[in-house]
Amino acid sequence: MNLLKLTCLLFPVLLFSQVNEIEQDSTSIEYLIIEGDSIPRRSIDLEEVMILHKLTFKDRDAKIRYLILRRKTLKVFPYAKMAAERLDSMNSRLATLTKKRHKNRYSKQVQKYLEDEFSEELKKMSRTEGQILVKLIHRQTGSTAFDLVKELRNGWRAFWYNTTASLFDISLKKEFNPNIEKEDYLIEDILQRSFQSGLLDRQESAVKFDFYELTEKWLHSPEVKN
């Protein structure tokens, strides 16, 4: 005799719309009852988990460099994530405005808010932390910090932002490129491990790459290997 399960404990989202129940027969095969049709299933959908290789280092200095990079990445990533979220919210809001003066007024409000929100914290960052932040802004938004400033302000403003940053050896045009830059791959490795451990809230990259292919490539690096 078939036993009915209360699937609201397992599939609350599906139950909200059209899935009514799950039946299980004597062979332990589960059935989704969707609008009168039974669909057999032998598995339960789970969130994708990335399998990460075990890191080993050629020497103590390589390990120390990785740990320093990890500390700096963990420090600046929340700001890059926040910038991406603010930019997304701003673009969504701008899409609802029809008059140019309203868009300009709203953009200036967001710009001032971002400057007030970030300025003091950015002043506390070191040069390398600032450059990592620039890279991560590109990772999170798909645009360089230079292009974002140019879009939000104007080309002249972006030029001066980049010139000022260059005095501290920071380029706002720097991109996140783990395919070419070993440091960027290590940053991505740090992010993935931190997402899984819960140290950082996950936010997907706007820059497309295959992390597993990159791992295979960089495993032969003199710094990090399997």
From TrEMBL:
Q: Which domain of life is it from?
A: Bacteria
Which Pfam families has this protein been placed in? Answer: DUF4294
What the entry lists under InterPro entries is as follows: DUF4294
Return the protein name.
Answer: DUF4294 domain-containing protein
